[in-house]
Amino acid sequence: MKLFKTLTAAAIISTLSFSVFAAQEITREKAKEMKLEMIGTVDTNSTLSPMDAKRILSGKADEKGGKYFVVIAAGDNGHVHATAEVYK
Question: Which first-to-last residue range defines the signal peptide (predicted)?
Fold first, then answer.
């Protein structure tokens, strides 16, 4: 039982720590206001939901070293495709 509680606590903490470090979605206006530097773009191949697309874009922005991303294009033709600019 003690092991179960420890594993549960570790899972919750790791989930919270991921969200702390994940790139945040912002608007293009907010990026200009904050005077952020654009460092590239990222996109999704195809997902089934917009939430999955945002999660993937956030992860790819993290990999590029970005702290923020702005979705600039999205489409849904049976699968969600999205492109975002990455900022630091």
Answer: 1-22
